[in-house]
């Protein structure tokens, strides 16, 4: 939500792990939409209400490191417990920082327990199926964190902004009706409810970048030869539909943010701040699972002690 007063970034180094998790949960709460009915994008900032100057860099870095470390220890328990899984969906305009957020926030996590899937324009095989099909194949196994870099939400974003795409989806014509978007929202809500009931927690992150900041980042991508590969004329073209995208995002969040599977609308004009907010949202989701290492039986402990004794006697 819009924050009224300028907050200061706190030094969290002295906190216990439990306190840190509590802080992260409270912090992520600011950006968590929950029930989307009253959601308005204009109520959410793209800039953090925080004057982060160059002098704050070490503190920002340290805060993110603490978050990443907390997340990594929680993921270890998620993996050991092997019951829940977490799906984190990222959606955003180009250059909002999805790739960087995924890279930095997941940097401490055991790669065995995490899988990133990117969804670009669908292939002809994808189009021979229902729109959830290609994403369903990449859902995280129990004990794992799955990251979707774009997702089935493109079906109510890019496809809605460019309605002609619908015609390429091989749908029977009579199914392309005026309530197709409403129906897709309903299908997505049901799908996420189904996943929740099966132990897959789904959270969704919208990196809320401003049009001005996108312009700045696009120019950087042209000026910096190492960033040229990241930029295409298609990205610049999509920028021309900014307002249509913002309306589509707003309606998408209104219709698909639920208590169980909330959207987090994260201010993304400052990359470091956005990464801290993303790490906090993931910590929040994992903390809500009440994770614990599997309990070992008395017999098993006795057996382990016997093995230890034998090893020491070698
Ligand atoms: P990066 O630019 O960092 O490589 P990206 O996710 O922007 O990552 P691109 O290949 O540039 O990757 O863009 C993918 C494009 O595919 C986006 O414009 C997106 O809107 C589009 N896309 C994704 N899903 C669908 C879909 N279901 N139907 C049509 N277009 C889609
Ligand atoms: Mg792109």
Concise synopsis of the structure shown:
By secondary structure, the chain is an alpha/beta fold.
Q: What report would you give on this structure?
A:
This protein has 314 residues and is of the alpha/beta class. The chain has a single domain, classed as Rossmann fold, CATH 3.40.50.300. The protein is 46% helix and 10% strand. Helix 1 (17-29) packs across helix 11 (271-287) and helix 3 (98-105) packs across helix 11. The protein is globular. The structure holds adenosine-5'-triphosphate and magnesium ion.
Task: Write the topology of this structure.
Layout: H1 17-29, H2 57-81, E1 85-92, H3 98-105, E2 114-118, H4 124-127, H5 133-136, E3 145-149, H6 158-161, H7 180-197, E4 200-208, H8 211-223, H9 233-239, H10 242-256, E5 263-267, H11 271-287, H12 298-313
Parallel strand pairs: 1-3, 1-4, 2-3, 4-5
Adenosine-5'-triphosphate binds next to α6.
User: What is the succession of H and E elements?
Assistant: HHEHEHHEHHEHHHEHH
Count of discrete structural domains: 1
Largest sheet: 5 strands, parallel
Backbone structural class? alpha/beta
- Contiguous low-pLDDT stretches (5 residues minimum) are none
Number of helices: 12
End-to-end Cα distance = 63 Å
Q: Give the C-alpha Rg.
A: 21 Å
Q: What is the CATH homology-level superfamily?
A: P-loop containing nucleotide triphosphate hydrolases
């Amino acid at each position: 939500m819009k924050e009224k007063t300028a907050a200061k970034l706190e030094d969290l180094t002295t906190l216990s792990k439990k306190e840190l998790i509590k802080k992260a949960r409270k912090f992520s709460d600011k950006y968590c939409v929950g029930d989307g009915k009253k959601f308005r994008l204009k109520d959410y900032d793209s800039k953090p209400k925080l004057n982060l100057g160059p002098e704050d860099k070490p503190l920002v870095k340290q805060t993110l490191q603490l978050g990443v470390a907390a997340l990594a220890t929680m993921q270890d328990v998620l993996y050991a417990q092997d019951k829940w899984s977490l799906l984190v969906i990222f959606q955003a305009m180009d250059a909002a920082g999805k790739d960087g957020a995924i890279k930095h926030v997941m940097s401490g996590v055991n790669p065995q327990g995490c899988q990133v899937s990117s969804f670009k324009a669908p292939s002809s095989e994808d189009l021979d199926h229902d729109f959830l099909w290609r994403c369903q194949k990449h859902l995280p196994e129990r004990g794992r964190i799955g990251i979707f870099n774009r997702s089935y939400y493109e079906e109510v974003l890019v496809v809605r902004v460019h309605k002609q795409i619908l015609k390429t989806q091989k749908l029977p014509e009579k199914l392309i009706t005026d309530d197709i978007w409403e129906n897709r929202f309903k299908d997505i809500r049901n799908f996420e409810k189904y996943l929740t009931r099966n132990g897959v927690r789904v959270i969704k992150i919208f990196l809320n970048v401003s049009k001005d900041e996108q312009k700045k980042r696009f120019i950087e991508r042209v000026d910096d030869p190492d960033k040229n590969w990241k930029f295409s004329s298609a990205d610049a073209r999509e920028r021309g539909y900014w307002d249509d995208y913002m309306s589509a995002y707003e309606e998408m969040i209104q219709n698909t943010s639920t208590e169980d599977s909330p959207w987090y609308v994260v201010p993304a004009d400052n990359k470091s701040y956005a990464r801290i907010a993303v790490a906090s949202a993931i910590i929040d989701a994992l903390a809500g699972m009440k994770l614990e290492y599997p309990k070992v039986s008395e017999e098993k402990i006795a057996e382990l002690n016997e093995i230890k004794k034998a090893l020491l006697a070698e």
